[in-house]
Amino acid sequence: MLYELQQIFHSIIKSLEVLYVIEGVKPCARILVFEDDLEKIIDFLMKNQLFFSLSDFKVLKQTIQSEFYSDKSIKIQKNALQKGHFFVYLSKTKNFAEKAKFLEENNEHKDLGLLLGYPECCCDFFVDNFDEKNTDLTLKILNNSDGLEFAFHTNIAARHFDVALLSHFPHRFDCKPSIEIAKNNLEAIKEYSKPLAAMFLGVLQSIVVYTIGEGVFLLRKCEKIGNEFIYGDILATEKSKLYFLISSNKRFGIINKTKFVVGDMIIDGPQYGVMLFT
Ligand SMILES: [Zn+2]
Question: Where do the structural domains in the chain lie, given as residue ranges?
Fold first, then answer.
């Protein structure tokens, strides 16, 4: 089934959203679907006895790097000529799918988050921090978290590489209810594909260098030697200067949340966020 879903969505994260609903670990899901793919998806949902509703608008994506909860996008009319993405709300419970659509249309972000199964602490955090200018809350979450070493379950930076166990922004990286959700999701993945679960772990367990404007980097296969980490490889969203610096070195040091050392060079600034997921 997972394979079939991936053929339709071309995205692991989206496929898993549907799987979580089928498996009953998520009460309702909301996914963005390109309008040319709608027919295939609706077919799949009907075949699997899932209820769904479609947004009465479509959106043009402004960023292509992520399909996450709160991507920056512009709403347009559903019959506009320009092709766009629809929101598909799906659930095993009919009125959940309808209700999710209603809540989205009325900008009831908190109730929508709760209906999608997200913890209340995280829904409140989202409502307090999300706006047109702040659509990516990753650095805010880091700021709101104590320390900089966290369990891999809440590594939402990996979503940029189509890997994540959460589809919401946790209010902190050590948010307990979020970790519980991630654990349940991981169990569901394991039941369908052990290799996929193993691949997820290999990406989620990493040092994350999150930047505004210079890309997102995951340093994998890290080994701590003294105060430094030696890393095996790097996943990158951008081939920026910082990317070339990190990829041409193998040593990395973390000083604090916004300050780190690559090779012998110290990099520091509020536009950076560094965290370790183990
Ligand atoms: Zn939370």
Answer: 2-202, 205-277
Q: What is the pTM of this model?
A: 0.93
Average pLDDT over residues 230-259: 95
Task: Give the per-residue pLDDT at 65.
Answer: 44
Bigger pLDDT: 3 vs 110: 110
Output the pLDDT for position 62.
64
Any idea what DSSP says for residue 171?
S
Both structure tokens of 59: 């959106």
Instruction: Please report how many Cα atoms fall inside a 13 Å half-sphere around the Cα of residue 46, on the Cβ side.
Output: 6
Identity at 131, one-letter amino acid code: D
The answer to whether the beta carbons of residues 55 and 78 sit under 8 Å apart is yes
Could you tell me the distance, in angstroms and rounded to a whole number, from the CA of residue 173 to the centre of ligand 1? 8
**Average confidence (pLDDT) over 215-221:** 96
CA 124 – ligand 1 centroid, Å: 8
Centre of ligand 1 to C-alpha 234, Å, is 29
CA of 34 relative to ligand 1 center, distance in Å: 30
C-alpha of residue 118 to centroid of ligand 1, in Å? 8
**125 CA → ligand 1 middle, Å:** 8
Comparing 34-43, 61-70, 159-168, 177-186, the range with the smallest average pLDDT is 61-70
Give the distance (Å) from ligand 1 centre to CA of residue 13.
20
Which has the closest alpha carbon to 270: 254, 256, 253? 256
Distance (angstroms) between ligand 1 centre and the Cα of 120 equals 7
Question: 247-250 long-range contacts, Cβ below 8 Å, gap at least 24?
Answer: none
Could you tell me the two tokens for 242? 């910082």
Strand partners, 230: 223, 251
